[in-house]
Amino acid sequence: MDGQGPLINMVFFCHICSFHAKTGKTTRSLELKSYFEEKLKSSGQNVEIISESNAIIQTGYNKNVYFADSKKEKAIRSSIKSDIQRKLDSNDLLIFDGSNYIKGYRYEIYCTTKLYKTPQCTLYCNLPIEQAWLWNNKRLNSDRYDKEIFDSLVTRYEIPDTTNRWDCPLFTIMPEDILMCDEIYCYLYKGKLPKPNLSTQIPPLAPTNYLYELDNITKTVTNVILSMQQLGINYDIKIPGSSVNLKRITIPSKLAILRRQFITFSKMQQNEVDQIATLFVQYLNNNIR
């Protein structure tokens, strides 16, 4: 690592539910901090969180004022980037707890870590928009997003993508998931990337009816899974058209979310139609824990 400490780039879906005790990006960053403090206690390394929320509070803005003004956002992002750059030049672990919804900003952070030869990974805390809005409404008025700002952040958000080198390696976590601390540690400190799989390969061009087939095939796979679940079959499920079996079933709401995510990624990747079912099942296997 050339004496430099790694950075964990915390990416959260529009950072709209960090208040929630079990799902927010801030809670996840604290989980990571606790894990790494224990893991690194014999090495003398420090673990520090750089918090976007704290930076906003220190300026005297509330979140709605801050996210309604692009100049305020730009100033604080610049300040945080400078802070990261200063602290990368040490033997510490940095956890950047921020919304990081701008693809270009994530790329700038990536370039900074490359300059200091510092390993980086991205943790994407994902959850349904509808669920985030419900949780937002349970906040205190002083800590609640206005509907206009909430909708704007949802629209602006540029989802991390495994095809972008600045987002990789990408660890995606749902609210009900256990944080994959060991996997993150292995990459940052042992240089072990997750094994390549079909869902991350560069695909060939697709036919003109690709989007129709993508929607239809993933829907068929989903229906098969739901049917097996109703029959009480929850493990090692054979999926028509797939060369791999589904290792285990998840709840219908999460299955629907993963299907939407896969469709979004596949629109950009343009896979072969006859590989869609296999790729989808592989994607489910990688994201259902």
Describe this structure in words.
The strands form 2 sheets. The chain has a 5-stranded parallel beta sheet with strand order 2-3-1-4-5, with helices on both faces. Strands 6-7 form a two-stranded antiparallel sheet. The protein has helices spanning 25-39, 52-59, 63-67, 70-88, 103-115, 129-137, 147-156, 181-190, 210-230, 252-269, 276-287, and strands spanning 7-12, 47-51, 93-97, 120-125, 170-173, 235-237, 246-248. By secondary structure, the protein is α/β, with parallel strands linked by helices.
Structural key phrases:
alpha/beta, 289 residues, 11% strand, 5-stranded parallel beta sheet
Describe the secondary-structure layout.
Layout: E1 7-12, H1 25-39, E2 47-51, H2 52-59, H3 63-67, H4 70-88, E3 93-97, H5 103-115, E4 120-125, H6 129-137, H7 147-156, E5 170-173, H8 181-190, H9 210-230, E6 235-237, E7 246-248, H10 252-269, H11 276-287
Helix pairs in contact: 4-5, 9-10, 9-11, 10-11
| Mean pLDDT across every amino acid position | 80
The biggest sheet, with number of strands, parallel, antiparallel or mixed sense and barrel status, is: 5 strands, parallel
Task: Tell me which oligomeric state these chains represent.
Answer: single chain
- State the shape: globular
User: How large a portion of the residues is in β-strands, by DSSP E?
Assistant: 5-15%
DSSP helix fraction: 40-55%
From N to C, what is the helix and strand string? EHEHHHEHEHHEHHEEHH
Q: State the strand order across the main sheet.
A: 2-3-1-4-5
Radius of gyration: 20 Å
Structural class: alpha/beta
Poorly predicted runs: 11-23, 193-207
Distance between the termini: 30 Å
Beta strand count: 7
